[in-house]
Amino acid sequence: MNESPRPAHNPWLSVGIVCLAQLMVVLDATVVNVALPSIQHGLGLSQGNLQWVVNAYTLTFGGFLLLGGRLSDLFGRRRLFFIGVSLFSVASLIDGLSSSSGMLIGARALQGIGAALVSPATLAIVNTTFADGNDQRKALSLWAALSAGGAAIGLLLGGVLTQALSWPWIFFVNVPIGVAAVALAVRFVPGGRIEVKQRGADVLGAVSVTGGLALLIYVIVKTQNYGWGSARTLGLGAVALLLIAAFVGIEGRVRAPLVRLAIFRTRALAVGDGAMFFLGAGLFANFYFGTLYLQDILHFTPIATGFAFLPVALLIGAGAGISQRIVPRYGVRAVAVGGLAVAAAGLALMVRVSVHGTYLGTLLPAFVLLAVGLGLTFVPATLIGVSSVHGDDAGLASGLFNTAQQVGGALGLAVLVTLAASRTSSLVSGLGHHASAQAVAGATVSGYRIAFLVAAAFMLTAILVLVSFLRPRHLEHVVLDGELASTRASA
Question: Which residues pair with 193 in a beta bridge?
């Protein structure tokens, strides 16, 4: 299936519009973190239900991304963009109006589905807007910077809106942004005629992979309650893996598959997705545990916590700008590896957190390294993962790339939270029943240190994937300033 887009009056305006929607989607993954105590108090949520304010979004976002990517190829990226943004905006309105935990959690799940339609459509539009390698790289740099920095911006926005107004406004703010994005996209984002090469819908494939991924993320999230070795975890995990295995079998037999398995023969795509999986696994440790450390240990207010992450957002953008300029000189693999190494160093530096730590002396130096490293990494990683496929598969490649990051993030965070909680619980149990608040805080921080160390290991694993499996010949379709990346990488 091909889209024959109408010429846009200003392609950069088109890219800016869809990137605005992508920013809205990404920041919503973290915007609620700072507001969780206020949401819990306002709706009377139990601790068990409170985690699902975050997890319901992650579950449906990660579970439906692959389906959203293929649908954007089948029915048009512009059309899926409209549907996704509209669904996301309506769900955001319901979030803000929620009067019960069930209503809020259900709307968050609906938001995740909308995000799963928007994100691959935006990346596919950005990736196919420019034929010129230089402009394409700049456009992907913008998308990558917003995707990486959106999490930090979400914490800042969440803190400001929660403290200045109230928690429903962290959701209400999405509505005018969504309306503006749709209105501007109608005028400035090119659409066009869709030529259908294959007819029929791979319903079984869609159900099996979406169900398998959603169930797998659910199992990972619930390990915090039931443990990795419980019968519930192992049983549901086995069902999730069977569904994914069934999907692979189905895709090899149907005439119009949801995912052409042959796409994984493109080494750059496969390796890029693998690296993004491990990057995602380590990425959210900073935002999740960093937020807890600032509020629970250093006693920052919500708005102060949000502003504490402002340098992260700014430096990610700066790193992305540097990255898109140096990639043509040093090659996508070298820049990605260098960026991951800097990010890993930043996470490793965060093991210095302590009960008596400070923001300026303890966290900020680590934030600087991590943010610059992420900014350097996301641009070449995105180029590796999505620019080596033909236009017909741009949406699918985008869905795979986003799925790798979201599933990696869900899995990684579940592992890190489990390890941190286990470490803290072990230390607290050794303190006895009359442990002081200071001692309990020390045990909690010790758990954070374990999480940061393992997160750094995830980043180093992403480096290992790139170095071990990616060669210059695998990058021959990545064009930089009109010259093949393989040429630059081997120079």
Answer: 4
